[in-house]
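Running this now, will post back.
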Amino acid sequence: MVEPPETDPAHDERIRALSLAKYRRHAERYDRSLGPTWPIRQRAVQGLGLRAGQRVLDVGCGTGMSLALLRSAVGEQGHVYGVDQSPEMLARARALAAPWPNVTLVQAAAHELRLPEAVDAVLFHYTHDILRSPCAIEHVLRCARPGARVAVAGIKYFARWLAPLNLWVYFKNHGYNGAPGQLARPWDRIAPHLAGWQLTSTQFGMGYLAFGTVRHGAAGVAAAPAADQAAPARATAAPRPSPPQPAGATQGAR
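Update: finished.
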């Protein structure tokens, strides 16, 4: 059987449909499965080097488990954007973020996201399907300013000497992603877009955590004028606050 080109929109739509169906089933109990990857999430957010007042995008934000960490890092003067295509997952994230006026959540596929401003950092935490879509990667990175810091974490195959375990890794990934394969180098489509790429293994070799910065000339196009995105932003999150008075960063809590 000949596989369709991975840039084929019909192929991407099939992957999206499979992913939506899987996360619809997982949404209610999803957070219970995240304990083993929590330290990786913390390291990813810390590695973004966020400062008070910055803007950050959480790609595939799911139930919002990274939002409190990101909000704590940028403080009340900053802003956190989250995007996810799953209405069931995003409903839980909205409930979590309801008290936070500087968190905007958008229900959209990654390749359709538009933001009212360019962001200073981007988090991809276990977003395998997005990382296998060249269109999604390029579009998301155009939502960031040149030089924006990017953190990428996810699952991968073990080294060759542990290859018998990779069938288990595949089926573990299959439970959540529409395109569960291609786990030998799942970062290979985003890495060329980033300068200063650095990667380390996690979870005894079953995971990875990487950082880089958005190359100049690859950013800014997908940031919509504020008027274009104003209605969706109001529909998906609390309104943006008026310009804040100087204050220290606050700690978000779940």
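The beta strands are 55-59, 79-84, 103-107, 119-125, 144-155, 194-202, 207-214. More later if anyone needs it.
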